[in-house]
Amino acid sequence: MGRGNYRAGSNNNSNRQGSNNNSNNNSNNGGGKPKKSTGCKAGVGAKSNAPWVSGWNLQQRRGMLSFLAFPYEGTSEHTSEQGRQWQNWVAKIKINGVPQNGVMPCLFEPSTGKVHFKEMGMIANPKKDYFGTMFKD
Predict the structure, then answer these.
(1) Does residue 23 form part of some domain?
(2) In 1-137, which ranges are E strands?
(3) Domain that holds residue 47
(4) pLDDT tens track for 14-58
């Protein structure tokens, strides 16, 4: 037995160079599923009864971007040429946990629940749990 502890058929490959340990690397995030990089949800304020949408997006170059969008006192509803209803909302933005000065304007589409950030080229969709780059349908 010149091989020491080695047994034929052993699953212990942690000492082998070049072994693929994806199962070990992914064990902390859902058993092999890729890590989630965006999220979005909507709700209604308990005290104010006002709707809100919040979301986050994690990118390598920009870091963590998060927002909280809500209507403000001057919110009004508009109809586009295509007949879609829109409300002008505002959003508080955080980049890497640091609040940004002021608020950013955004558009809320009540029929879909989506929030459009035209200045950033991003869209938030609570129904799909997505906050990221706008895609043209």
Answers:
(1) no
(2) 38-44, 51-59, 63-70, 77-79, 85-95, 98-99, 104-109, 114-117, 122-125, 130-133
(3) 37-133
(4) 444 544 444 444 445 556 778 889 999 999 999 989 999 999 999
